[in-house]
Design goal:
The chain is mostly helical. It has 10 helices and no strands. It is elongated, with a radius of gyration of 19 Å.
């Protein structure tokens, strides 16, 4: 199934949600966000901006449906009230969360085999920062979307205090 087909299906599901009652619209919106927009976020990492924009429009429609807000109100404020991240940020968040879980539990094993800690050859200040090794020689956009490449680059871009978290309860999910 192509990513364009997934985004098209999500768009159609969101449009049909406009004719539902408020409670049903909320249930459908949460189900769509949970199952369509939240599904396989690490696969969505590095997706074209056109597809991200389509998914963002789906989320904006869902925001207006859930809040029963007029189309003239910015979806940004409503999304903030609902505690929904924009699609591109949500994809990055889920990738970092999956990386954190893989680092701290070593599960799933097939993912824990793909990432390794960065160990500098000399004693450096960065030795204690829990950075990940990013494979070199990545030239294509498709290769840069692989978990072994995208997880370390996204993880290493986080602030240092995030790397040292031992429990997820310290993060507001």
């Amino acid at each position: 199934m192509s990513l364009a087909l997934v985004t098209t299906t999500s768009v159609h599901c969101a449009i049909y949600g406009l004719f539902l009652t408020l409670d049903t619209a909320k249930a459908v919106a949460v189900a769509i966000v949970g199952s369509r927009l939240d599904y396989c976020n690490s696969v969505l990492y590095g997706m074209s901006q056109a597809n991200i924009n389509r998914l963002q429009r789906v989320q904006n429609i869902l925001v207006w449906v859930v809040a029963r807000a007029p189309w003239t109100i910015s979806s940004l404020n409503i999304r903030r009230d609902l505690h929904w991240l924009p699609v591109s940020h949500h994809v990055t968040f889920k990738l970092c969360l999956l990386t954190w879980k893989t680092l701290h539990t070593a599960h799933p094993p097939y993912l824990s085999e793909l990432i390794t800690h960065y160990l500098p050859s000399k004693a450096l200040r960065s030795s204690n920062t829990n950075l990940l090794f990013r494979p070199s020689g990545i030239t294509s956009n498709f290769t840069s979307r692989a978990f072994s490449v995208s997880a370390p680059s996204t993880w290493n871009s986080l602030p240092t205090h995030i790397h040292s978290l031992d429990k997820l309860s310290t993060i507001n999910l």
